User: What shape does this take?
Amino acid sequence: MINVPEIFGSMVFNEHAMRAHLPKDIYMQLKETITEGKPLDINISNIVANAMKDWAIKKGATHYTHWFQPMIGLTAEKHDSFISNYKGGKVIMEFSGKELIKGEPDASSFPSGGLRATFEARGYTAWDPTSYAFVKNNTLYIPTIFCSYSGEVLDKKTPLLKSIELINTHSLRILKLFGNYNIKRVMPTLGAEQKYFLVDKNMFNKRQDLVSCGRTLFGAKPPKGQDLEDHYFGALRPKVSKFMKDLDKELWKLGIPAKTKHNEVAPAQYEIAPLFTTSNIAIDHNQLIMEIMKNVAERHNLSCILHEKPFAGVNGSGKHNNWSLITNTGINLFEPGNSPYENAQFLLFLCAVIKGVDEYQDLLRASVASAGNDHRLGSNEAPPAIISIFLGDELTDILNAIENGVKYGNKEVMKIKIGVHTLPEFQKDNTDRNRTSPFAFTGNKFEFRMVGSSLSPACPNIMLNTIVAEELCKFADILENCDNFNDTLNKLIVKTIKDHKRIIFNGNSYSDEWTKEAKKRRLHNLETSADAIPQLIAEKNIHLFTKHNIYTKSEIMSRHNMLLQNYCRVISIEAKVMLEMTKKQIIPAVLKYIKEISETALTKKSLNSNLECYVEEDIVNNLSSLNFELYNEVKKLEDSLNEAHELIDLPARSIFYRDSIISKMNKIRKISDTLEKNTSKEVWPFPSYSDILFSI
Ligand code: ADP
Ligand code: MG
Assistant: This one.
């Protein structure tokens, strides 16, 4: 039996632990730092560090680590023990404020996208007191940001924290205009629904593609795939249920409020969703969830797959990013209110999102761009690569009525005048939610569904915070300086709806008609990462980032370079693994089978030369010619890979990968999958889709 309240957060140096371990005045000062972002005095940090160490040692910690989020990949850490001295055979365990606040990992091996030449490789990490420290694997983890000595940002947390400050500043400006002087802080929130696959570990390890690339590069469609859709919300298999229980326990100990768990649409696919919280913490939590899921799976002889598209023909995995804004007084700013003024405020925040998403569609798309996620967004399942907003018919009708100054529905109100009339009631949480929309308003929050399952939620949240803050800033500039507030507000909302309503779409986003319609509306359709990533450095976007000091120009350039490099690298690795599996496993296996069949025919003939060998001959002919085709395609892919390596220009190289390499890989896969279907199971060199997907 698990006592949830007892274990929840037991390994976290949270408020409860701080209050218990710190002198009252120190606790109060630390709390001010956490809630109001005030700088921390070094004397205080010494006391905090010491208390943290004593607490951590009680929890079994021998080491501490500064834990950070480099630009590519998940998290990084460097461990030091608390041993600081040793006298007469006795060790002294120490941890100073300086060690808590600042660390110096050897930064040279972290990707910097050209920001930092290797000769000035030093970087430092700095404590982020707004996310709690915790103990895991006998180590005290200190969440930190990561910068170079010249001040360039080398991680994902720093820009995130900046974007959180930014949206706080401009939200407060707007709130003051509506008379909310009591609100001191506005924080973006995040609830990240994480999808993943669980498969048998032995099966997983038998496939080089899964081991090296996290996804299958081959695999004929099984006779029973997800056609029956009987997996969704079905009963959890005992092995899976055990895994989930264990996972929940690990997460709860770290104060991660894991709540929902269920089967997903595809066989072997599952979801975990924690309760939402402020986004900095929710992002740290999501990083931990991904890591701990993998570790717990290992313990249960399972493999947890986080890739966006591990199996062709089977649903991919996303990470739904539920985003909203909450005040320190507990008000959700996307909750439509009851009074005319609350309504007007809601509409203005809604307009900021509509305008921001329309003007910066490209940035949102780029923020979720990766080679893995391309397999989802391009195809006909996850939201398409086109960004649009789902508001639901009712809210859309209300906006139409406001825009045209006409009557809405059969309500008394003839014309909805913002700031004067109460908004008509509308269905807030429509049960028939549109699941095809990439960006859906779901009653009191927005659900951005394009995020890939393996990606850090940091980048999409940096973008969301920044673009909405930018629009709030522009609105505040206008409204703070106007003579007639109500009138100006009305005009501003009407104009925003008029100018940006093209981004609103409530229909089926998977349909071809929408692709055509979106083209008419001149919305971006950035199908691949090679198209999307370059948008990061479009002039208007660089202007946005530098205006608000989220990234400098060189920082955004470096991120652009790194993402493109990573895109090429991932495809290059996949292509090489594909070549190796084809040459060393598939072609030899087919040859072996051909030999077996030929020998059967020969044996038959030696028994009686008149015996028919139609089947043998047919199989041998068919397989020989397919194998020959495969052999030729291998050579073509090898040539193209060599060509790719010679392309210096990064955008050109990424386009070459997109166009030349991927198409050749697709050809190889197609031939190989046909071979798999026509070759005996005994000789096939790795587990099939059926073996893996129904392995537990
Ligand atoms: P779905 O129907 O998309 O699966 P769920 O109800 O399973 O939706 O998940 C909703 C997610 O949204 C949960 O992770 C929840 O914590 C999160 N969420 C709810 N309210 C907010 C909010 N105000 N801000 C951010 N996330 C929220
Ligand atoms: Mg969802």
User: Anything to note?
Assistant: Residues 189-191, 193, 260, 273, 275-276, 320, 322-324, 332, 444-445, 447 surround adenosine-5'-diphosphate (ligand 1) (CB under 6 Å). The first helix runs from residue 4 to 7.
